[in-house]
Design brief:
The chain has 158 residues and is mostly helical. The protein is built from three helices and two strands, in the order H-H-H-E-E. 47% of the residues lie in helices and 3% in strands.
Length: 158
Protein backbone atom coordinates (compact mmCIF):
# COMPACT_ATOMS: atom_id res chain seq x y z
CA UNK A 1 0.00 0.00 0.00
CA UNK A 2 1.48 3.26 -1.16
CA UNK A 3 -0.97 5.45 0.74
CA UNK A 4 1.58 6.04 3.53
CA UNK A 5 4.29 7.20 1.19
CA UNK A 6 4.35 10.78 -0.09
CA UNK A 7 4.07 11.15 -3.83
CA UNK A 8 7.16 13.41 -3.84
CA UNK A 9 9.35 11.07 -1.80
CA UNK A 10 11.83 8.86 -3.62
CA UNK A 11 12.72 6.91 -0.49
CA UNK A 12 12.11 3.22 -1.05
CA UNK A 13 11.46 3.67 -4.76
CA UNK A 14 13.17 0.72 -6.52
CA UNK A 15 14.31 3.02 -9.34
CA UNK A 16 16.63 4.80 -6.88
CA UNK A 17 18.02 1.80 -5.02
CA UNK A 18 21.70 1.21 -5.53
CA UNK A 19 22.49 -1.68 -7.84
CA UNK A 20 26.18 -1.80 -6.90
CA UNK A 21 25.59 -3.30 -3.45
CA UNK A 22 23.85 -6.52 -2.39
CA UNK A 23 20.23 -6.31 -1.22
CA UNK A 24 19.98 -2.71 -2.45
CA UNK A 25 22.24 -1.38 0.30
CA UNK A 26 22.89 2.33 0.03
CA UNK A 27 26.59 2.53 0.85
CA UNK A 28 29.41 0.55 2.40
CA UNK A 29 29.84 3.39 4.90
CA UNK A 30 26.94 4.02 7.31
CA UNK A 31 25.46 7.49 6.81
CA UNK A 32 26.02 8.47 10.45
CA UNK A 33 29.75 7.65 10.18
CA UNK A 34 29.96 9.59 6.94
CA UNK A 35 28.25 12.67 8.39
CA UNK A 36 30.26 12.47 11.64
CA UNK A 37 33.47 12.31 9.62
CA UNK A 38 32.33 15.31 7.59
CA UNK A 39 31.44 17.26 10.74
CA UNK A 40 34.74 16.45 12.48
CA UNK A 41 36.66 17.60 9.40
CA UNK A 42 34.68 20.85 9.29
CA UNK A 43 35.16 21.38 13.05
CA UNK A 44 38.93 20.98 12.64
CA UNK A 45 38.93 23.51 9.82
CA UNK A 46 37.30 26.22 11.96
CA UNK A 47 38.98 25.70 15.35
CA UNK A 48 41.08 28.81 15.96
CA UNK A 49 41.33 30.26 12.53
CA UNK A 50 39.45 33.11 10.93
CA UNK A 51 36.71 32.34 8.47
CA UNK A 52 38.82 33.80 5.70
CA UNK A 53 42.16 32.30 6.68
CA UNK A 54 42.55 30.36 3.46
CA UNK A 55 44.09 26.94 3.17
CA UNK A 56 46.40 25.76 5.90
CA UNK A 57 48.91 22.97 6.16
CA UNK A 58 47.65 22.31 9.68
CA UNK A 59 44.53 20.60 8.38
CA UNK A 60 45.20 16.90 7.87
CA UNK A 61 44.08 15.31 4.63
CA UNK A 62 41.43 12.66 5.21
CA UNK A 63 40.70 9.76 2.90
CA UNK A 64 37.09 10.22 1.89
CA UNK A 65 35.02 7.03 1.85
CA UNK A 66 33.47 6.06 -1.46
CA UNK A 67 30.01 7.58 -1.85
CA UNK A 68 27.26 6.21 -4.03
CA UNK A 69 26.42 9.29 -6.11
CA UNK A 70 23.23 7.66 -7.38
CA UNK A 71 21.68 7.50 -3.90
CA UNK A 72 19.37 10.52 -3.52
CA UNK A 73 18.87 10.03 0.23
CA UNK A 74 22.59 10.08 0.97
CA UNK A 75 23.19 13.05 -1.34
CA UNK A 76 20.29 14.93 0.27
CA UNK A 77 21.71 14.21 3.74
CA UNK A 78 25.17 15.42 2.72
CA UNK A 79 23.72 18.52 1.05
CA UNK A 80 21.64 19.43 4.10
CA UNK A 81 24.65 18.89 6.37
CA UNK A 82 26.80 21.14 4.18
CA UNK A 83 24.12 23.84 4.12
CA UNK A 84 23.75 23.68 7.91
CA UNK A 85 27.51 23.81 8.47
CA UNK A 86 27.92 26.81 6.18
CA UNK A 87 24.93 28.79 7.52
CA UNK A 88 27.08 31.11 9.66
CA UNK A 89 29.46 32.07 6.86
CA UNK A 90 29.25 35.06 4.56
CA UNK A 91 29.30 34.45 0.81
CA UNK A 92 31.94 36.68 -0.74
CA UNK A 93 32.11 37.92 -4.32
CA UNK A 94 34.78 36.33 -6.52
CA UNK A 95 36.88 39.52 -6.70
CA UNK A 96 36.98 39.83 -2.92
CA UNK A 97 38.03 36.18 -2.58
CA UNK A 98 40.88 36.77 -5.05
CA UNK A 99 41.94 39.92 -3.15
CA UNK A 100 41.92 37.99 0.12
CA UNK A 101 44.02 35.21 -1.42
CA UNK A 102 46.61 37.76 -2.59
CA UNK A 103 46.60 39.44 0.83
CA UNK A 104 47.02 36.05 2.52
CA UNK A 105 50.00 35.22 0.30
CA UNK A 106 51.60 38.61 1.00
CA UNK A 107 51.08 38.33 4.75
CA UNK A 108 52.36 34.74 4.79
CA UNK A 109 55.55 35.86 3.05
CA UNK A 110 55.98 38.71 5.52
CA UNK A 111 55.49 36.38 8.49
CA UNK A 112 58.08 33.92 7.13
CA UNK A 113 60.50 36.78 6.45
CA UNK A 114 60.01 38.09 9.99
CA UNK A 115 60.63 34.62 11.44
CA UNK A 116 63.92 34.34 9.53
CA UNK A 117 64.97 37.82 10.65
CA UNK A 118 64.10 37.02 14.28
CA UNK A 119 66.16 33.80 14.14
CA UNK A 120 69.14 35.73 12.77
CA UNK A 121 68.82 38.48 15.40
CA UNK A 122 68.58 35.84 18.15
CA UNK A 123 71.84 34.28 16.94
CA UNK A 124 73.49 37.70 16.87
CA UNK A 125 72.28 38.46 20.41
CA UNK A 126 73.58 35.13 21.70
CA UNK A 127 76.95 35.70 20.01
CA UNK A 128 77.18 39.21 21.51
CA UNK A 129 76.42 37.84 24.98
CA UNK A 130 79.12 35.19 24.57
CA UNK A 131 81.65 37.82 23.49
CA UNK A 132 80.67 40.06 26.40
CA UNK A 133 81.16 37.17 28.87
CA UNK A 134 84.50 36.31 27.32
CA UNK A 135 85.60 39.94 27.46
CA UNK A 136 84.52 40.31 31.10
CA UNK A 137 86.43 37.15 32.06
CA UNK A 138 89.60 38.48 30.41
CA UNK A 139 89.21 41.87 32.08
CA UNK A 140 88.88 40.12 35.47
CA UNK A 141 92.26 38.48 34.95
CA UNK A 142 91.21 35.07 33.60
CA UNK A 143 93.07 33.84 30.55
CA UNK A 144 92.38 30.35 29.20
CA UNK A 145 91.05 29.21 32.56
CA UNK A 146 94.10 30.42 34.50
CA UNK A 147 94.20 33.53 36.66
CA UNK A 148 97.14 35.92 36.43
CA UNK A 149 99.64 35.03 39.15
CA UNK A 150 98.10 31.60 39.87
CA UNK A 151 100.73 28.98 39.02
CA UNK A 152 98.82 25.81 39.83
CA UNK A 153 96.45 26.19 36.84
CA UNK A 154 93.21 26.31 38.85
CA UNK A 155 90.88 29.12 37.90
CA UNK A 156 88.81 30.71 40.64
CA UNK A 157 85.64 32.34 39.42
CA UNK A 158 84.05 35.03 41.56
Amino acid sequence: MDSLRSSTSSYGDPRYLSTGYPNGAVSLVPSRDLVDGYRSASDMATDDRSRYSGHSAAIPQMNAPSIDTHDPVLLHLLTETAIGDSAGYEILPFEEVEDLKREYATLSNRVESTKRKLALETKLRDAAQSLRRLSSLKSNGYTNGVTNGDTNGVAHHP
